[in-house]
Specification:
This protein is of the alpha/beta class. It contains seven helices and nine strands, in the order αβαββαβαβαβαβββα. The chain folds into two domains: 33 residues; 201 residues, Glycosidases (TIM Barrel, Alpha-Beta Barrel), CATH 3.20.20. Strand 8 and strand 9 form a beta hairpin. The longest helix is centred in the first third of the chain and has 28 residues.
C-alpha cells in the first residue's frame, strides 16, 4: 500500500521515536547493569542503612560482596535502627564490616564523635570508621570552612584515638569543592562518582562508590555499590591496620557526581 506524503512523514516520525526509545532503553540498561572491571577492582562491597530493611547476609556473601559499610549514627543523638542487627549479622556471615557516621553541619564534632562511640563497639577486625560528608539531607546551616574543619577535626581525632585506625572520608564532589579542597590530605577518601572512575586531584582515594541504584541478591530494592582501590592483600592490610599505599589502579575521567547517600538516601 502506497503512503501519501503525509503518511510518509508520519512513518518516519514514528520510526525515529522508536529508534530513540530503543537507544534510551539500551543506555538505561547499560547504566543499571554497570560494573567496573572485576580484574581491575577485585574487592567489591556495598553500603547500607535502615533503608535496605532486613538483609539476607548469607546470600550476599555468595554473590561477590566482600565488604559492607553500614550506617551507625547521625549527628549528636541519632542511631540507625538497623545498625545493631546489621553489625552482628554481617560478622556472622563472614563479611568484612565497617561503620559510618553521617556528619551534620549543625552539631559540634565532639558531640557527634561521642554518639558514634556509644553506638559502635571496639572491634579490631573491623574496617576503619568512615564519616559521611555531604549536603544532601543535612541541616540548612552552612559554617565557614574554618568552622567546619575545626569540628570535623575534633570528630576525626577523637574517633581515631578510640578505634586505633585513621577514618576514611566519604565525600561528594560539591562538598569536597566547598570544604575540603587542599585540606586533610593525609586521609583516605571514599569518592562518590556514579559510572565514571573518580578523579580528585591530590587525593588518595581508597573506595569508589560507582552506583546508587544497584541490585544485589539478598537485598530488596536498590543499594549503593562500591569497589576498593587495590587487590585483596592491600584491602586486608588496610582493614587490619588502617594503613594503605598507592598501588593500582590509576584514576580515570572527571566524575559525574550527583546527590550522595544523605540521611534519607539508600545507604
Amino acid at each position: 500500500m502506497r503512503l501519501g506524503r503525509g503518511g510518509a512523514v508520519i512513518a518516519i516520525f514514528v520510526a525515529s521515536i522508536a529508534f530513540s526509545a530503543a537507544a534510551l532503553g539500551g543506555a538505561y540498561l547499560h547504566f543499571m547493569n554497570f560494573e567496573p572491571s572485576a580484574s581491575r577492582y577485585p574487592v567489591r562491597g556495598i553500603d547500607v542503612s535502615h533503608h535496605q530493611g532486613a538483609i539476607a547476609w548469607e546470600t550476599l556473601k555468595g554473590r561477590g560482596v566482600h565488604f559492607v559499610y553500614m550506617k551507625a549514627s547521625e549527628g549528636g543523638d541519632h542511631v540507625d535502627t538497623r545498625f545493631a542487627d546489621n553489625w552482628t549479622a554481617a560478622a556472622r556471615a563472614g563479611l568484612a564490616r565497617g561503620a559510618y557516621h553521617y556528619f551534620t553541619l549543625c552539631r559540634p564534632g565532639i558531640v557527634q564523635a561521642h554518639n558514634f562511640m556509644r553506638t559502635v563497639a571496639l572491634d579490631k577486625t573491623a574496617m576503619p570508621p568512615a564519616v559521611d560528608l555531604e549536603f544532601g539531607g543535612n541541616c540548612k546551616h552552612r559554617p565557614t570552612r574554618a568552622e567546619f574543619l575545626r569540628e570535623l577535626k575534633a570528630f576525626l581525632t577523637t574517633i581515631e584515638r578510640r578505634y586505633g585506625k585513621r577514618p576514611i572520608l566519604y565525600v561528594t564532589r560539591s562538598f569536597h569543592a566547598r570544604y575540603l579542597t587542599g585540606e586533610l590530605n593525609d586521609y583516605g577518601y571514599w569518592i562518590r562518582s556514579i559510572y565514571f572512575r573518580p578523579t580528585v586531584p591530590g587525593r588518595r582515594w581508597l573506595i569508589w562508590q560507582f552506583h546508587h541504584r544497584g541490585r544485589r541478591d539478598g537485598i530488596k530494592g536498590a543499594v549503593d555499590l562500591n569497589v576498593f582501590r587495590g587487590n585483596r592483600a592491600a584491602f586486608e592490610r588496610w582493614r587490619r591496620t588502617g594503613q594503605w599505599r598507592r598501588e593500582t589502579p590509576s584514576p580515570g575521567p572527571i566524575p559525574g557526581s550527583g546527590p550522595g547517600k544523605a540521611s534519607g538516601g539508600n545507604g
